[in-house]
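Researcher: Structure prediction, please.
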Amino acid sequence: MTISLPDSYRSSTVLWPAPSASGEEPVAWVPLFGLVTIGTILRVVSLNQQLWFDEILTLLDSARQPVLRTITHYGGQNQHILYSVLAHGSIRLFGEQPWTLRLPAVFFGVASIPTLYFFGRLVTTNREALLASALVTINYQHVWFSQNARGYTGIAFWTLLTSIFFIRSATNGKRSDWILYGVAAALGIYTHLMMVCVVVGQALLYVLLLGSKGSSNWYTSRNCVSLLYGFILCGFLSLLLYAPVIPSVLAHTIVVAGDPSHYQWTSPFWAVREVVRSLRGGILGGLLAITLVGVILLSGFIAYCQENRFAVGLMILPGLITAMSLLATHHNFWPRFFFFEIGFALLLVVRGAMVLGKLGAQMLGRPDKLGLKAGTALVLLILLASVVPLRAEYRYPKQDYLGAMKFLDEHQQPGEQVMTAGSLSTPYQRYYHRNWPLVQTHAQFESALRSDHATWIVYSMPNSIRISQPEVWAIIEKNFTLVRAFSGTLGGGTIYVSKSNEHSKRDSHVQ
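Model: Predicted structure follows.
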């Protein structure tokens, strides 16, 4: 594919195509301040709901620990080091509560609203940038992750910020912008290792930009020297930050113990199904709505390709690199690994709505102004639809450990024992201090079922148990009856409470 730029932009210092005209428009400070205020409120409401599994691990293994231990010990991919350090500081300042653990996620989530706006002004109109920021303000998934004590809103923020510095650097070639890019990218990597894929995608795009100037003199341009201040600085700072834990990081990322390919989560098709399920819960669901969003996204993608293919590369390449790395390492294909793309996706949605509005006006023989209004109205309809699912975010916890625990406190009789299966032993034993043993073998089940008293079992992620512990799952299915299920907003995170069969019938009234 031949990549070319307009001749007017073939100087030795300017790589990026003509900036958007919105850069000359005044910043919409008043509506932007309103969006930040609304976004803050939406992310603070119900912030103190109970923690879910990954958050509990973050608290126990990182945020509660001294900072020195956090930055020198890497226990696994659940540890997002910069987030853990910030969460530790929040807990020290305000005390240990779910909301204090989540406070850094709220900060990054709110900060993403104006950052998306200022990025949008570099690649599209001021109106579209503001509408995209409005969408991210009330987007269910973004609010959910902003109330999730993990580094995902952090990487979304750093992705947008590095994209701003990338465009500014490629436009004016200033050393200061490249230095800011390198620092922001390194902090993003320190927040979440998946940021490496974002930086690789941006580096690849930069090479394409250099190549678009021709092969005769690109290597003499100071744009090539700028690599030292941007990408190489990012690599140096990242290695410096991770230096104490590099062997552990490699052991948990590149060196994979065993072959996890039998797990369903390594399949991208599973990830697509999860995204569809999430969208059905995140908008006025249904396949029709999802199809409409797909058409709008595709329309926006095509429009951006026709206008500025490099802007598309900045949006798409990091996601493609992420997908390729997950496939190459047989890693779990969690949709949350692509959460950093949410701002870009919403910009495509807004552009697609504008394109469809203009197309509709042209078909009716109406002026372009009507098409602009129609496109804006379509975005506002999407905005309105996005409000509806927020009720679930505030009504239900991510995982209802306390609901299951309260239920058992009310119905467990003297002599009856409670066991856990799967991953629930960590929350109940280490966080809630319940002496509920983790059952892992057939012998443990046999001993419990021989008792004259009933046995309760609490579990979650049944697909995980069925795949990784088929013997345990077979016994649960054969010897236990489901009594109550406690739902939450985490996909697949329902907490199930079952009782041994010989005792479950007489207690069916508790369902």
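Model: The chain has a mean pLDDT of 85.
Researcher: Thanks, that helps.
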